[in-house]
Amino acid sequence: MDTYIEAFFDYLSVERGLALNSIKSYKTDLNKYKNYLDKLGRDNPRKVKREDISEFIFSLRSSLSIGTISRILSSVKNFYQFLLREKIISHDPSSLIESPKLEKKIPSFLTSQEVIMVLKAPNLKNNRGIRARAILEVMYATGLRVSELVDLKTQHVNLEVGFVKCKGKGSKERIVPLGNTANHFIKKYKQQARPGLLKEKESVFLFLAQGGHKLSRQTVWKIIKTMVKKAKIKKKVSPHTLRHSFATHLIEGGADLRSVQEMLGHANITTTQIYTHVNQKRLKEIYNQFHPRSKK
């Protein structure tokens, strides 16, 4: 089983070009599955039955969320599809196993006014404050994931034309427009703050930590948390909240779903459709609040 799992990881990395974090998730999921099979004495994928996989999934219910279980089952199914494609097995024992029903959660987001309050929170009198403002402006203007933001290279930011080129999930590249305000603060950061952070070193990355090192995702999270607190916003906010706000405000403004899908880098438009639900919920709240007969 170990040999086949390693071959699967090679396939994910080389042929599908998945990001390292995605492959790590697959490894975590399949290690859980392999440990379960070891207890059953199943050391060959040809010996695994549908009932074994069903019982494995059932055993997870007491300790894991439905979302995590669904992800693990998806990893197992992808593994068996790989084995079937490579003709290592003659049938897929996971094919008839259904994923647990997931409740669609509407993502949390900030209102336009709340976003402005967060954007204006950094102190522009020091390098870190200028960097914080540039980061916040870019995240809200482009909807980049935090991993995409920290991997952003200076050569992939075109300030003359006004766009950024980033590499998303599965190493897929996309180009996202950059608004005038974000453009202005990137220029300010590059001229005033980045040289001081660089300390006469060289780096291909746009956003830097002290000493010229690449900025970490954890640092971005701390910056956002600090600025949200400074803006006196009580909502629970993460880097992804700015991405949700970016998409929600585009949809509210009348942007078409396909364009938002492309800017977010979603492989499937059904993932993007959640933001239409956000918009519908918001419209209903506004209606209930302001229509004179909504409560009669």
Description:
With 296 residues, the protein is mostly helical. Helix content is 57%, strand content 4%. Strand 2 and strand 3 form a beta hairpin.
Features:
296 residues, mainly alpha, DNA polymerase, domain 1, hpI Integrase, Chain A, 2 domains, 13 helices, 57% helix, globular
| Strand order in the sheet with the most strands | 1-2-3
% residues in beta strands? under 5%
So what's the oligomer here?
single chain
Fraction of helical residues: 55-70%
Based on the structure given, which CATH architecture of the largest domain is correct?
Orthogonal Bundle
Return residue spans where pLDDT drops below 50 for at least 5 consecutive residues.
none
In the CATH scheme, what's the topology name of the largest domain? hpI Integrase, Chain A
Q: Tell me about the biggest sheet?
A: 3 strands, antiparallel
Number of strands: 3
For CATH, the homologous superfamily of the largest domain is named as: Intergrase catalytic core
Distance between the termini: 65 Å
Mean pLDDT: 89
What's the number of structural domains?
Answer: 2
Shape: globular
Given helix and strand content, the structural type is mainly alpha
Radius of gyration (Å): 23 Å
Describe the structure concisely for a colleague:
The chain has 296 residues and is mainly alpha-helical. The protein is 57% helix and 4% strand.
